[in-house]
Design goal:
This protein has two domains: 1-34; 35-253, Glycoside hydrolase/deacetylase (TIM Barrel). Helices cover 41% and strands 12% of the residues. The chain is built from nine helices and eight strands. The radius of gyration is 19 Å and the shape is globular.
Amino acid sequence: MAGDILKRHSLVKAAKSLSGWIKVKTSGDVTADPCYTFDTIMDISEKHGLSSAFYFIADHSTDKMDGLYSITHPEIRRLLRHIYARGHEIGLHTSYNTYRDPVQTAKEFEILKQTCEDEGIQQTTWGGRQHYLRWETPTTFCNWDAAGLDYDTTLSFADRAGFRCGTCYEYPVYDVVNQQPLKLRERPLIAMECSVIDECYMGLGNGEKALEIFQQLKNTCQQFQGDFTLLWHNSRLVEVRERRLYEDILHCFGIL
């Protein structure tokens, strides 16, 4: 509510936030949370014949930087089942301090897999990304490979969308220190919404300038018959303009 008033300068949004908070607390209806946009994401994806991947934090390696929810909470378990039932993918969103920690990485993947197994969720492929795109090569590659994950899609620069890997193709990973191939595959992350939108990064907002950048990146991927991998946080679909931008991107791309 403070953000609605001080940052977004909207008493109407503050009132809606208060109303949603009261509804969640009194009735337990988590869909009243403005950040509960999972059905919106799936609706938009399915409208364009796409399938989305939702990455969940399974454990916490720091109190300050990781998500506040527990993957064992009944509502999170219900959400996992709901996503799976609609034919979308579930993956791992490792916690803040995992990028140098193979033990914690493996622990979090096991928690996610066990939770999904308990809920009757079965997948042939498991992947995800690092929190805050934190990375160390080849340490993080090796962590994911040792844990048994099939793919990572972390590699992008947070401050500028584009081709950190120099390619838009999924590729097999190689451990350059131990000079051996890994089973893990990398899916280069081409664009994260906040990299383009936020003032602390490219600062293009959520209008035509931002859409133009996404289109340019998409066209480059298309030119070389590659994959445009887009990361969009569920909390960035609360604003009408951000939702409209997201829908415009998917409408233009036809790929996710």
